[in-house]
TrEMBL record:
<keyword id="KW-0436">Ligase</keyword>
<dbReference type="Pfam" id="PF03133">
    <property type="entry name" value="TTL"/>
</dbReference>
<dbReference type="GO" id="GO:0036064">
    <property type="term" value="C:ciliary basal body"/>
</dbReference>
<dbReference type="GO" id="GO:0015631">
    <property type="term" value="F:tubulin binding"/>
</dbReference>
<dbReference type="GO" id="GO:0000226">
    <property type="term" value="P:microtubule cytoskeleton organization"/>
</dbReference>
<dbReference type="GO" id="GO:0070740">
    <property type="term" value="F:tubulin-glutamic acid ligase activity"/>
</dbReference>
<dbReference type="GO" id="GO:0005524">
    <property type="term" value="F:ATP binding"/>
</dbReference>
<keyword id="KW-0067">ATP-binding</keyword>
<dbReference type="InterPro" id="IPR004344">
    <property type="entry name" value="TTL/TTLL_fam"/>
</dbReference>
<keyword id="KW-0547">Nucleotide-binding</keyword>
<feature type="region of interest" description="Disordered">
    <location>
        <begin position="335"/>
        <end position="359"/>
    </location>
</feature>
<protein>
    <submittedName>
        <fullName>TTL11 polyglutamylase</fullName>
    </submittedName>
</protein>
Length: 552
């Protein structure tokens, strides 16, 4: 902390809320510009919708969602259509205000017409989502999983997932939603911040009982009942990678606007909190992504009426300390310097565990997505944190001291990394999904003025012209009309009114439109892929020509 300012720059900046907390020009910052905006409920739903349009099967881990108020008529019409097609379908929906957290303002409904009764939708945009009625229950209770994910770098994409997470339990036995129980938050919402106020909330000193447990303790239980936890982990990893692939295009637009390429600036990393619900059949479903997951390792305890004290929470400590420790080990600037210069850094300047190669250990349960095996953890004990510490002190004097840059003293024996690299490790399996990323690259190329996130009409025209997309069937006048129509619609519903012009999502819509026009008979993802290839090819040719002209 440097409350009175400091003259020298830092290696790592740990901001509380967002990238813009302070002006930073070097080092590494624990926040990406635009992350908060990108993971808001509405923006996330839009990004997931785009991916669901392109790859419906691959993105079926996100519940069907509609954005209110703009898609209220669509919501009503689609639900009616689905009910007509399947009269036995008795859905429930969950309405979540945009920008809300901790269960704030969330309610369940049985029928779209119930939304209008609340009246606040116009003033507070929201997402309405199909409610997952058959979650997996443990001890008859609904629970969700909070998993910590480190986005270590955007370009190239580097993702790490923490081996353990938290399971947060409801405090009333679950029943499928009926008109009678819809309002029972302790039955339907797993938020810690809500359930803590229930008389049934159990603070446990153990990590495998109580209202907050480690995810590994749940896996252990599932595995002992014969569940395929290996597949479950593999599905979770794939959910995380696909979700980040959906978010990267938008993040890249923010990134280039705040940290233009070629200019000195910081690099970014960020710990994200993924909220995942397991369905009865063990399918993981994404609920949301948190840009600022709570890293508290204490909770309040009422000692006597009205007298509160912060006491350690063993479950939080077990999971979160490891996440922060490993994040610092992975972004360790000394390690990078050593790698770059091959100069041995004196031990006193080294970060804990600096000798470890991030993500390269092939430690089960992360042995390759196909044959991913989930090492079922030993039955968790209440003292497992203490055990980690014991391990450290037992191994401390030691073996690795001859290594040129091995840390010495107690640092030498830090536990192995809890954060495991999943990308680029599994990049091959997922690269075909990164279409919107390539559309975003085209968008960024034509943004022109540095520091913007929106494309002006001239930029759009230049894009069309340089990629030779205009012809006798699609005149430049039609190009302008397309630009105006789509931009106007997106700006009328956008949250960001600061800049005028075409936002990335509007550009993506326009791009899809052009792709559909050009390659009529193909499925959407092939239409889009074909148009991307065409654009990239024509731009490369143009670039080549310019180089030749330059030489001439
Ligand atoms: P918040 O940011 O306010 O916590 P969430 O999207 O995480 O909002 O939702 C709050 C809680 O509501 C979740 O923790 C989960 O228990 C429940 N929930 C959210 N979406 C669904 C859904 N589609 N189906 C079932 N339960 C859900």
């Amino acid at each position: 902390q440097f409350p009175f300012g400091r003259r020298l720059p830092c290696d790592i900046y740990w901001h509380g809320v967002s990238f813009h907390d302070n002006n930073i020009f070097s080092g590494q910052v624990n926040k990406f510009p635009g992350m908060m905006e990108t993971v808001r409920k509405i923006t996330l739903s839009r990004a997931m919708r785009t991916m669901q349009d392109l790859f419906p099967l691959e993105y079926n881990f996100y519940p069907r969602s509609w954005i209110l108020p703009e898609e209220l008529p669509l919501f009503v019409a689609e639900v009616q259509m689905m009910k007509d097609n399947n009269p036995s379908w008795k859905p429930t929906f969950i309405v979540k205000p945009d920008g809300g957290c901790q269960g704030d303002g969330i309610y369940l409904i049985k029928d779209p017409s119930d939304i209008r009764l609340t009246g606040s939708i116009q003033s507070r945009p929201a997402v309405v989502q199909e409610y997952i009625c058959k979650p997996l229950l443990v001890d008859k209770l609904k629970f969700d999983i909070r998993l910590y994910v480190l986005l270590k770098s955007l370009e190239p994409l580097e993702i790490y997932i923490a081996k353990d997470g938290l399971s947060r339990f409801c405090t009333e036995p679950y029943q499928e939603p009926t008109l009678k129980n819809l309002h029972q938050v302790f039955m339907h919402l797993t938020n810690y911040s809500l359930n803590i106020h229930s008389g049934n909330f159990i603070h446990s000193a153990s990590v495998n009982t109580g209202s907050k447990r480690t995810f590994s303790s749940i896996l252990y239980r599932l595995s002992s009942r014969g569940a395929d936890v290996k597949k479950l982990w593999s599905d979770i990893i794939s959910l995380v990678i696909k979700t980040i692939i959906a978010l990267t295009p938008e993040l890249k637009v923010y990134y280039q606007s705040d940290i233009p390429a070629g200019k000195p600036g910081p690099t970014c990393f960020q710990i994200l909190g993924f909220d995942i619900l397991l369905m009865k059949n063990l399918k993981p479903m994404l609920l949301e992504v948190n840009a600022n997951p709570s890293m508290r390792i204490e909770h309040e305890q009422e000692l006597s009426p009205g007298v509160f004290e912060n006491v350690p929470s063993p479950v939080d400590e077990e999971v979160k300390v490891a996440v922060i420790r490993d994040t610092l080990r992975l972004v360790d600037p000394q390690k990078k310097k050593r790698r770059d210069s091959h100069v041995t850094v004196p031990p006193e300047q080294q970060w804990p565990g600096a000798h470890e190669q991030p993500g390269l250990q092939e430690v089960s349960p992360w042995q390759g997505l196909d044959e991913m095996s989930c090492e079922v953890p030993p039955k968790p004990t209440p003292c497992s944190i203490v055990c980690c510490r014991c391990q450290s002190s037992e191994q401390a004097p030691g073996a690795s001291q001859e290594l040129p840059d091995a840390p010495q003293g107690p640092e030498a024996a830090l536990p192995s990394l809890c954060l495991k690299q999943v990308f680029p490790k599994y990049a091959k399996q997922f690269s075909y999904l990164r279409l919107v990323d390539r559309v975003a690259a085209l968008f960024i190329r034509f943004l022109g003025v540095k520091g913007t996130t929106k494309l002006g009409p001239t930029g759009f025209r230049t894009f069309i012209r340089n990629c030779k997309l205009s012809n006798s069937n699609f005149s430049m006048a039609a190009v302008d009309i397309l630009y105006i129509d789509i931009t106007r619609r997106w700006n009328s519903m956008g949250i960001d009114h600061k800049e005028s012009g075409m936002c990335l999502q509007a550009f993506v819509e326009a791009f899809f439109c052009l792709a559909q026009k050009k390659y009529k008979s193909l499925p959407l993802h092939e239409q889009v892929a074909s148009l991307i290839e065409l654009c990239e090819c024509r731009l490369a040719a143009l670039h080549g020509k310019r180089l030749v002209w330059g030489c001439g």
